[in-house]
Amino acid sequence: MNSARRAHTKSKNGCDGCKQMKRKCDERIPCTNCTKRHRTCSLLASVPSSSASPPSPPASPPQPHETFSISDFALFHHFTTSTSSLIANEPPYSSPWKTGVPALATQYPFLLHEVLALAAVHLSQLNPSKSAYYLRVAGEHQAFALSLFRAALAAGIGDGDAAEPLFACSALFVSYYFAVAPDPAALLFSTDPPGPPEWMLPLRGCTELVRCYKRSITDGPMGNLMSDYIAVLRAPTSGGADAHIDGLRDGLAALSGDWSEGGVLLPVLDKLRTCFALSDSDSGDGVSNKTATFMFAATVPARFVDMLGEKSPGALVVMAFWCVLLHRINRRWMLYGADRASEMLDLIESLLSPRFREMIRWPLEVVKSTPQVRASNGQGDATSSAMDVT
């Protein structure tokens, strides 16, 4: 027997994520493992980018498009002529995505990469035979966008000039996560590492930017979208789902004696009630539905988000009700090819014990009795909101 064994070649230059998972890194930038998991690859830090601080004295700012290929220009063109129309196709909500965001993207590399990532995802849906290629391209641009976005946040917003592109990029992140989520679990909680769902974090950051830099955003190209944020603040406080939410409140309150997190969830139901009331008031253009759906996730307390990451049964029950709101916007292109609300409900039901499962009968009845209606080629009746760019 030959005792010699082929040695496993371990790269000394692999990324931190591959080292942590004890996987072989192919050292691409970003590496394939990180791209597949939609995580920021540490190898990106070794690549000079247009967001890096220039040497002193500062020269003229490097242009973010200088290192982009012809295919990147094609993606940018596709975003401006097609993808942006799916984000919003009616004035005044369409102009920020058709003209304002592309203009900002030429100045801020993190936004430009996110625009290209979303265009590539859209093309993956329009061209099934090339889906794998476009999703790989999308993952690479997304990794760069995340890395540069975090660097921009760490550098500070200063006088607010960067607030608008950060706001736009945060919103586009949500579109990306919903479009590429491999399974419903990824939309409810993160498993690697354990924690809250990734799509909620940029959405909540988007809301914080609005709170802190409302004037800067209102005065810029994204200003038209601010009306949706204000609409949530003025939303009615009661609607057609009140009886069902009251029943959920009673069920959770009954558990408060032996379940310590009941008190955390009860105030969350007030936000859920407001979002349902806003959705019920939708005039038919879809704006109120979409605003209500994503503003709930953007404004709930941080502890609730943490509870999702912990797979708290009470938090999962609340998200089952939220799935009814998500189901109301099922013609959105981000959901094309999958009934996200139904998938998420199936998973929630499988994770709950009988006493909690009984509480989600209404969401199951609503979502399961109304089949998903797909839009041709992923193109739905897309109108936008400040929190909804999906």
TrEMBL record:
The keyword Nucleus applies. Keywords: Nucleus. This is Zn(2)-C6 fungal-type domain-containing protein. InterPro entries: Fun_TF, Sterol_Uptake_Regulator, Zn2-C6_fun-type_DNA-bd_sf, Zn2Cys6_DnaBD. It comes from the Eukaryota. CDD domains: GAL4. Residues 14-43 form the Zn(2)-C6 fungal-type domain. One of its GO terms (molecular function) is zinc ion binding.
